[in-house]
Specification:
Elements (H helix, E strand, L loop, with lengths): L1 H4 L55 E6 L6 E2 L5 E4 L3 H4 L2 H5 L12 H6 L9 E2 L7 H4 L3 E6 L5 E5 L4 H4 L9 H24 L4 E5 H13 L2 E7 L13 H12 L4 E5 L6 H5 L5 H17 L8 E6 L4 H14 L5 E9 L12 H4 L1 H16 L5 E9 L13 H14 L4 E5 L18 H12 E5 L2 E6 L9 H4 E8 L11 E7 L5 E5 L8 E8 L10 E3 L2 E2 L14 E3 L5 E3 L3 E7 L11
Parallel strand pairs: 1-18, 3-13, 8-9, 9-10, 10-11, 11-12, 12-13
Antiparallel strand pairs: 1-15, 2-14, 4-6, 5-7, 6-8, 14-16, 16-17, 17-24, 18-23, 19-20, 19-22, 19-24, 20-21
Helix pairs in contact: 11-12, 12-14, 15-16
C-alpha cells in the first residue's frame, strides 16, 4: 500500500489511512543534468584538460561546481511517471487494486500496494486491458483489440485529500492472494508466448473494469489517461470510432475526468492486423478523435496525447513526420517509447556499457528535430521506457544492475528537455517492474522513491574538472562517472529552499573522489548511497541505503530513508559500481529559492 503512496503527495509518505492506488509514480519535478566542462550548455560533458599538480600521483580527484544562478531546464512537476501493464486486468490483479472491494480479511500484502498510490506527486501511465468476456465483468463492454494496441495512463490529480477519505482499502484473505499469484503465473506464460510469437489475442474492457480502474485512480489522487483502440478500421483504412464513442459517452455519463490517446506503437500495426497505418492517416484519426471529444461537454477540453510510436528508426521517423504534418497541433504532447536491450539476450555487463547508456540521447535528438520542425516548443513525453524489451529477464531487469540504466535515463531525459517519462512498469507479467508479486519493492523502486523525494523540477548545469592518472584515449573518466544536479524538491521539508541535490553513477570498478568547489565548497552534505545488499552483488534484488538494508517496516509503512551527514568540506568518496544522491544543504542557490 505504502509503495505507490510513496510516489505521490510530493514524494513524501502518507499515513497508512491514505486511500488505495497502485499507479502513480510521477513525482514533482525530478530532472537532472550534467555538464562536464566550463561552458554552461546542457549536455556538454567533455572532461576538462587539467594539469596534474605535484602530489596527486596514484589517485583521481574530481573538482565539482554547479551554476546556481539560473536553471538550464525546468521539467514538468509530473516528470517521473509509472505505467501499469494491461496484464493487471486479464491476469486478475485489478481486483486486488480496486478500492471499493472490502472483503473481510487480514490486511496482509495489499495495503502495501495501495498506500503507495495515495501520495500526491506526478503520476503514471497504466496499461490495462481485459481478456474476460463482457458478461463476466459488467453490463457494457468495449472491445479493445490486441493487447499491444491500447493502454491506460495515470498522472497526478488535484483531488483534495479529504475526498480520498471516503475510499476503502481493499482487503483479501491470504488464500485469495496465493490463488491469485498462481493464476498470474499461468497468465505470465500465456503472455510470454504471445510476445515471442508476436501474435496477440483480442481483449475486451468492460464497464465494470473501467469503473474499478477509474475509482482506483480517483481514490489514489491520480489522473487517468486512456488509450483508445486504433485497430478498428473502416474498409478505406480510416479509424472506426463507433466503439470509442460508446466508451466516451459512458465515461462522460459517470463524469470521469480522463485524458485520451489513440493506439500504441502504430508503426507496428501491420504485424497486428495485417495492414499498416501511415502517419498521415493516424493524424487524420487523431483529428477525428479531437472532434469527438469536442462534441462531448465533459471532454471538450480534455488533453490528448500521441502518437506513442516505437523506437525512432528511419521508417518510424517518417511515420512521425507524416503524423506531425496533419495532427501536430491537435495533441498536447508528442509521445514515443524506448527499450534499451532485447530482454531475451541481456547480460549483466550490458548494464555497465557506456555506449548503451548513451543510445537514448541520439533518439531524443531525432524526436526533437521532427517535433520542432512542425510544432516548435511542443512538449515531448517518453511514454514507455524500460531497461529491456520482451518482458525483461529475471535477475537482470529487476536487479540492482538495471538501476544504472534507469537512473541515467532520468538524467539524460531531464537534461535534454523531455517533459515527462513513463516507466514501464509498476507491476506486470515480466521482470521490468518495480515491485515483485509479493508487492516487495525492487531496487528500481527505491531509486525512484529517492529521486522523487530529493529532486525538484529545475535542472542545473554542472562544471567538472578531472585530475587523471595516466589518461588514455577512449578511457575518459566522464564516460563512466555521470553526475547530474537539480534544485532539491520544494516538497521535501527536511531541506530549506536553495539547497541542491546531486546524483552520481559510478560505473568504474574503483572508487572516485569528488571535491565540491565554488558555491558548494564547505557546505554540509547529506549522503544517500545505494548499494546491492546480499551475496548476489549486481544481481541482487535488495538494496542497502548507507549500509542499512531497505525493506517495508510492515505491510503499510515505508522505512525512513535516513541520510548520512558529511561534515562541511569533506571529499565525497564514491564506491565502485554504485548510485548515490547528495543533498548540499544551505547553498542558498538563487535558481532554487523560488518555484
Amino acid at each position: 500500500s505504502e509503495l505507490i503512496r510513496g510516489f505521490l503527495l510530493s514524494g513524501m509518505p502518507c499515513p497508512s489511512s491514505c486511500p488505495p492506488g497502485l499507479l502513480a509514480l510521477m513525482a514533482p519535478g525530478l530532472a537532472l543534468m550534467a555538464t562536464f566542462s566550463l561552458p554552461s550548455q546542457a549536455g556538454d560533458r567533455r572532461a576538462l584538460p587539467v594539469e596534474k599538480p605535484p602530489g596527486v600521483k596514484g589517485r583521481t580527484l574530481i573538482l565539482l561546481d554547479v551554476n546556481t544562478k539560473s536553471p538550464v531546464r525546468i521539467i514538468s512537476e509530473n516528470f517521473l511517471s509509472l505505467q501499469l501493464d494491461p496484464s493487471i486486468i486479464h491476469d486478475g490483479w485489478l481486483d486486488f487494486l480496486s478500492p471499493e472491494q472490502a472483503a473481510p480479511a487480514a490486511e496482509e500484502t495489499l495495503p502495501r500496494l495501495q498506500a503507495g498510490a495515495g501520495h500526491r506527486s506526478p503520476g503514471m501511465p497504466v496499461h490495462a486491458l481485459s481478456r474476460a468476456s463482457p458478461a463476466s465483468l459488467g453490463n457494457s463492454a468495449f472491445p479493445l483489440g490486441p493487447c499491444r494496441s491500447e493502454s491506460f495512463y495515470i498522472v497526478r490529480s488535484d483531488i483534495a485529500l479529504d475526498k480520498q477519505k471516503g475510499c476503502k482499502i481493499a482487503q483479501h484473505p491470504d488464500i485469495m492472494l496465493e490463488l491469485q499469484r498462481e493464476k498470474a503465473a499461468q497468465m505470465h506464460l500465456v503472455l510470454l508466448k504471445e510476445q515471442f510469437s508476436n501474435t496477440y489475442s483480442n481483449l475486451t474492457l468492460t464497464a465494470r473494469s473501467l469503473d474499478k480502474l477509474y475509482n482506483f485512480a480517483d481514490c489514489s489522487g491520480l489522473h487517468l489517461i486512456f488509450a483508445l483502440n486504433a485497430l478498428r478500421r473502416n474498409p478505406n483504412n480510416s479509424w472506426n470510432s463507433s466503439n470509442a464513442l460508446s466508451l466516451l459517452k459512458y465515461s462522460a455519463s459517470k463524469k470521469y475526468n480522463i485524458s485520451w490517446e489513440l493506439g500504441n506503437e502504430p508503426n507496428n500495426y501491420r504485424t497486428l492486423i495485417g495492414r499498416s497505418v501511415n502517419g498521415s492517416q493516424l493524424g487524420k484519426d487523431y483529428t477525428q478523435l479531437r472532434s469527438l471529444l469536442q462534441l462531448i461537454r465533459t471532454y471538450s477540453r480534455a488533453h490528448l496525447y500521441g502518437p506513442n510510436i516505437g523506437r525512432p528508426r528511419k521508417n518510424v521517423i517518417a511515420f512521425l513526420e507524416g503524423f506531425m504534418k496533419v495532427a501536430g497541433g491537435t495533441v498536447d504532447a508528442v509521445t514515443w517509447q524506448h527499450y534499451y536491450i532485447d530482454g531475451r539476450v541481456a547480460k549483466v555487463t550490458d548494464f555497465l556499457k557506456t555506449r548503451l547508456l548513451d543510445t537514448l540521447s541520439d533518439q531524443i535528438r531525432k524526436i526533437q528535430k521532427v517535433v520542432n520542425t512542425y510544432t516548435p516548443g511542443k512538449k515531448i513525453w517518453l511514454e514507455g521506457v524500460g531497461t529491456t524489451s520482451a518482458g525483461g529477464m529475471n535477475n537482470l531487469s529487476d536487479s540492482y544492475a538495471a538501476g544504472f540504466l534507469w537512473l541515467n535515463t532520468l538524467g539524460l531525459l531531464a537534461s535534454q528537455g523531455i517533459d515527462v517519462v513513463v516507466r514501464h512498469s509498476f507491476l506486470d507479467h515480466g521482470h521490468n517492474h518495480l515491485v515483485d508479486q509479493n508487492f516487495n519493492p525492487l531496487p528500481d523502486y527505491w531509486l525512484s522513491l529517492l529521486y522523487k523525494r530529493l529532486i525538484g523540477p529545475k535542472v542545473l548545469a554542472i562544471h567538472v574538472a578531472g585530475l587523471q592518472r595516466k589518461p588514455r584515449p577512449g578511457r575518459v573518466i566522464r564516460d563512466k562517472l555521470r553526475i547530474y544536479a537539480h534544485c532539491t524538491s520544494y516538497h521535501n521539508h527536511n531541506y530549506v529552499r536553495g539547497s541542491i541535490t546531486l546524483y552520481i553513477i559510478n560505473l568504474h570498478r574503483s572508487r572516485k573522489k569528488i571535491k565540491l568547489a565554488g558555491t558548494l565548497r564547505d557546505k554540509i552534505v547529506h549522503q544517500y548511497l545505494l548499494q546491492p545488499y546480499g551475496k548476489d552483488g549486481l544481481h541482487s534484488k535488495s538494496v542497502q541505503l548507507n549500509g542499512q538494508p531497505l525493506a517495508m517496516v510492515d505491510d503499510g509503512t515505508l522505512p525512513e530513508l535516513k541520510p548520512r551527514p558529511l561534515r562541511a568540506g569533506r571529499t565525497l568518496v564514491i564506491p565502485p559500481l554504485t548510485m548515490s544522491f547528495y543533498v548540499v544543504k544551505n547553498v542558498n542557490a538563487l535558481a532554487c529559492r523560488y518555484r
